[in-house]
Amino acid sequence: MTTFTFITVWQVEAPIEPVWDALLHMESWPAWWRGVEQVDVLSPGDANRIGFRSRQVWKSKLPYKLRFEGSITRIVPLERIEITSEGELQGSGLMRFRNTGKVTTFQYDWNVSTTEQWMNIVAPIAKPFFSWNHDIIMNWGAEGLGRKLGGAKVATSDKGVF
To answer: Would 162 be classed as within a structural domain?
Structure first.
């Protein structure tokens, strides 16, 4: 398996509540996040969404789709969402949120390994392209979130702030 560590930061000119709500409700991502082709709810989880489980299909610029299942394992409301993934991407993710004045900071740290043989075979050469592909789809998410929130400005970065 090839391991990737991705850090994505969005600075959103919006209150924390709608940013939190949009990102917590993963089943709605295909409606506003280009590249998220499908999110099927396998389990709604408890009243706080812990245990929420979904099957997801993602597609970006490179000619392949990624299919994996994601589960919410821990939530601290308006502060953090912890997830695990299995399937073609196996690992864990941490979404963190902070509001300072008019800006909500969202940081997603994702540590995953590829399980598909073809990806692992080409990874020594293609790893930079896989990372580029990830950055594109995360930028699409930032653009979509801005539109979803009524035209909110969203700045992106790959430099962690938490």
So the answer is: no
Question: What's the pLDDT tens digit per position in 115-140?
Answer: 999 999 999 999 999 999 999 999 99
| Mean pLDDT confidence for 86-92 | 97
Domain that holds residue 16: 2-157
Dig out the tokens for 142 from the structure: 């930032």
- Whether 130 is in a domain gets the answer yes
Q: How many domains are contained in the chain?
A: 1
Any alpha helices (H) in the chain, and if so which ranges? 16-24, 29-32, 117-148
Is the pTM of the predicted complex or chain greater than 0.85? yes
CB atoms within 10 A of CB 29: 23
What's phi and psi for 116, nearest 5 deg?
-75, 130
**Residue 72: alpha-carbon gap to chain centroid:** 12
Distance between CA atoms of residues 91 and 106, nearest Å: 20
